[in-house]
Amino acid sequence: MGDYPKPGDHIFADRGTYDHHGIYVGEAEVTDPSSGKTRKLKHAVIHFGGNNSNIKGKASDAPCRKCFNKHGDPGVTLTCLKCFHKGDTFYKYRYDVSFITFNTTRNGSCTTASCDEPDVVIKRAYAFLHNQNFGDYDFFFNNCEHFATACKTGKARCNQGAAGFGVAGAIVYKAARRLLW
Ligand SMILES: [Zn+2]
């Protein structure tokens, strides 16, 4: 682990059978719900959990002492980087890749679509967070990858559920996967 992502980057963490996606927003302010005091987070991520099974940890777990995330919180949340990746390896999702790259890279790690400027991306992520208007979580039609791509491009996309299951696909994408940091 060397550098941190850049604010506005779409990142995803490898959770084994699926990936969890989010938008890295850099420094952010969080409020302690018990005292009402605000605190600065150095490395914050806005992501779409939707349901408890999508976030490691149980709803009964104590809130994170850094970002006050309660782990089982549904909807769009802002958490520290650690609550996002939970110790799993995480990667940068790539935009504007060629069709050849897209077709030879593991599903759900890149797209041929272009993304918008980081400040636009961050604004969209915060708007979803404040308005909680991303809708209900659905593994195939409204998941965390849709959320992150919607922030990046203004349009939800997903490659994660479409293909890549099964042994053949798994071998190909294990080999093609590259560690970005
Ligand atoms: Zn946290």
Automatic annotation (TrEMBL):
PROSITE patterns: LRAT (PS51934). It comes from the Eukaryota. Pfam families: LRAT. Gene3D superfamilies: endopeptidase domain like (from Nostoc punctiforme). Residues 10-160 form the LRAT domain. This is LRAT domain-containing protein. It comes from Hibiscus sabdariffa (roselle).
